[in-house]
Amino acid sequence: MRSLFRLVIHAGLTVALGLPALATAEVPFPDIPRGKGDKCVAPTDVIRQTHMDLLLHKRDQTMHQGIRTKQYSLRECLNCHVQAKEDGSYPDIHSKEHFCNACHSYAAVTIDCFQCHVPRPDDAANK
Asked: pLDDT higher for 31 or 42?
């Protein structure tokens, strides 16, 4: 009985201690285009975790309170992060080259922002 108990404990520890090794295995991440600026409006890890909350808060300020600023606005994100391709055209929102879709398709998250908003930077209209 003791041998079986030791075997179960040993097997459990082996699995538990081996899991971190599996967690550090090579995981493919999306290729996220860099922005034009030197730094983002917040640290990258904060933006990755809270961008939806920031955008929703910004939407509420704009739509319900009439407060219009550039910080955390979808327009400013697009102006910085959506880059023209080599031929001068801009990636379609459904392509993995589009800044927003690069992560959202990877995470299997549907984007509904662009049912109303234009998915390109402001200067795209001039080209």
From this structure: 42
